[in-house]
Amino acid sequence: MVWVILAFAFGGIIKGAIGAGVPIIAIPVLAMTHDVQFAIAVLLGPNLVANLWQAWTHRADRLPRKFLLPFSVAGAFGVVVGTYGLTRVPHDILSLIVASAVLAYVTLRLLKPNLSLSYLTGCRLAVPVGLVSGVMHGSTGISAPISITFLNSLRLGRDTFVGTIAVFFASSTLIQVPSLAVAGILTREIAFMSLIALATVLLSMPVGARLAAHLSRRFFDYSTLGLLIVLAGKIFMDVLL
């Protein structure tokens, strides 16, 4: 329970500051202390409510439906496929996939900080990118290496980015809830822990929003990337050594 609270508190601060960050922080931590299935299920409450909240508060800023609808629907379909894999892939393999996804995210952020795509190209790629992101979201809980990198490459303003990614994550999570319940992963005990995680994230997000007014985006980026390298390394060591 302590690990759950700490992981989601820090994730909530990052999300409040930059609009995303709960899964990329919480999943690796909980994968070390429990397993990937547990981590994804506990994340349901914070993911759903926090993203619905941000989708509503930034509803005037998000990208047009021409982009958002195919991106989100493809992601939701990918979640169903990913959840099927979640129930059949061994725990150690899932942990390694999570660690690899985290390192892929860090590598892309460091090596391609100025990656840029036009809006027209983004619309053409919305369905395939959304689908692959959804599969990653369903199977590992982490789609950031694809979804966040893709939206960052469109050079969106902070409010537009937050509103758009929030709709994508919320729609994916809405499909994920019944998928995990049918698969037997979402139990009453985990649902209770998810509520605690939700409260932690909601209390932490305003802290991140206030810090964002005084600290640079670069500070949050590099602090988060450094922590992610440590977490991914720890998962690799636990599984391989």
Detailed description of the structure:
- With 241 residues, this protein is mainly α.
- The chain has one domain.
- Helices cover 83% and strands 0% of the residues.
- The radius of gyration is 16 Å and the shape is globular.
- The model has no long low-confidence stretch (mean pLDDT 86).
Structure at a glance:
The protein is mainly alpha-helical. The chain has helices at 2-18, 22-33, 36-42, 44-57, 65-86, 91-111, 119-140, 144-153, 158-182, 188-212, 217-240.
Which key features would you list for this structure?
mainly alpha, single chain, 241 residues
Main sheet summary: none
Unreliable spans are none
Helix/sheet category: mainly alpha
N-to-C series of helices and strands: HHHHHHHHHHH
Principal-axis shape = globular
Number of helices, where a helix is a run of at least 4 consecutive DSSP H or I residues: 11
Overall helicity: over 70%
Distance between the termini: 26 Å
Based on CA atoms alone, the radius of gyration comes out at 16 Å
Count of DSSP E strands?
0
How are the secondary structure elements laid out?
Layout: H1 2-18, H2 22-33, H3 36-42, H4 44-57, H5 65-86, H6 91-111, H7 119-140, H8 144-153, H9 158-182, H10 188-212, H11 217-240
